[in-house]
Amino acid sequence: RDLIVTGVQTCALPISSITLASQPAKRYSGGIRSPLIDGKRGSLDYTDKHWCGFEASDLYAVIDLGKTGKINSITCGFLQNQTSWIFLPASVSFSTSVNGTDYEEIQSFTNRIAPDTDISVTDFSANPKRKARFIKVTAKNVNTCPDWHIGKGGKAWLFADEIIIN
Question: Is the separation of the CB atoms in 78 and 31 below 8 Å?
Fold first, then answer.
């Protein structure tokens, strides 16, 4: 389940646009082109400019492919570095739509957050094998550091990188 990568270029369907319901923290936004669709995977270093960091907020992204086509897989990677208050998402869900209004959930995951000192990247994937133009990716932040964490009660981070659609 863990995948360690360093600046790997991805191959995926072209993305026309991405809309985020909440913006990442300015210092972890990647600049002009969103790290969520820049074609490069993040490394184990959350400062490498290939991660979108959300402090005590969720990732809610809608991707427009520009035209309807067959979607075989959707993947989004997340960083875990609990020493830096970065946790995997509490849950992740993927939905698709042909018209951008009516979405059907393809797959969802619930993730148990447990103490772990390893720094790792975990991919969550769905295999819809259906036609769609719009993809919705939702990842719920744990929002506050758990009771067992040194930062108990402090704002937790969610770091996401490339959303890959094939």
Answer: no
Reduced to 3 DSSP states, what percent helix, strand and coil does the chain have, rounded to the nearest 5? 5, 45, 50
> Which are the contacts of 101, defined by CB distance < 8 A and separation ≥ 6?
none
Instruction: Show the tokens assigned to 19.
Output: 């809309």
- Express as a percent the part of the chain with pLDDT over 70: 90
Cβ(2)–Cβ(31) below 8 Å: no
Q: What is the pTM of this model?
A: 0.89
Q: What is the pLDDT of residues 120-133, one digit of tens each?
A: 999 999 999 999 99
| Pairing relationship of beta strands 74-80 and 120-126 according to DSSP bridges | antiparallel
In angstroms, the CA 159 to CA 55 distance is: 9
